[in-house]
Amino acid sequence: MSLPAKKYAQLSWTETLGMLAKLIPIPVALLWSVATTAYASYNRERSVKRVAGDSALRYLTTHLSVPQLQAAFGTTMGTYKKWTKANQLPVTIDELGLDGRLMWIGPKRLERVVLWIHGGAFSLPPPDFAISFWRYVQLELEKQNIEVGIALLNYSLAPEASFPTPLKQAGLALDFLMAAGVKPQNLQLAGDSAGGNLILQVLSQMLHPREGVPEIRLPAPLRGAYIISPWTNLSADSKSHTTNEGLDYLCQATLKDWGVHILPAVPDADRPFIEAVRAPAGWFKGADALVERVLITAGGAELLEDDIVAFAEAFKKHHARAELVVQKDGLHEDMYVDFMVKEKKVGSLTPLTVEWLAAGFQETSSA
Fold first, then answer.
1. Nearest CA to 80 among 95, 69, 91?
2. Boundaries of every domain in the chain
3. Cystine design at 277: which of 200, 215, 232, 364 (Cβ 3.0–4.6 Å)?
């Protein structure tokens, strides 16, 4: 198990050579994986290129260490600038302080906003295809005459930052948007994996202010929070980590290794902030006064499934308008992979995302 590098993407020459050596067999590995799994029952709704995409992600996340993945994927800033250039869209960035930023996808709009907090185990940047997904959502909302600004939170990543730095940066993002005139009832949060974790950290901070972290105060409840495949157990020890092994593109050993890069920096007293599924009963009591609507999604074939379901059931006890949707045979953040392979037939979570966000903003219009 590799120890965290001192700097982001820092590799020794042996690690660099090892990374290159691991990338060479990818074509053969993909051919074998597609040939042996493309027609399995759990892939019956997926095209061959989608199966190939899943296999590519599985190979990379299984064979490369966190620093190697960082070197391969680059930074959030680099990914965002390359994506905007490729899509002929403006680079629009607002500085938040503490090295945090908001990066706007498409036009900067403040009447209605989705604040997207990306995943990546608090260690990796958002992939370009995830940005493409949110641009697609934005354009689909425009077809319903709902113009939305989508802001990506650029928060600091491990090993150069640890808890509670991303939480502080998320609080600064909310402060910035409120100061810019965004009304809470016109703001919906969206977060995938570690980003979903960070949304839960924000709610936890509002309910149980942590010393050393500025309080997060809003003048009214947020319109919604969309929590996608949230990473609520960093120890990777629930049953679905075993039963869904080989189905998801993540593997148990990978998730355990990623957790090792994060958990040591979190004091035991702060574990409910970072591992929501292990939070005490009643931890999220009062969440219904902070956010009006909550949607939690999981894949029925992802390793995090059991933890997500357990967390959602506990959360729903404290929020009458929280709902859980488990996508049949879905993988971790399943809809993003459709956009990675440019799939024409998208899975069920993509239209659900558009419909759910639209419903929230339409409630605002009719209020």
1. 91
2. 74-366
3. 232
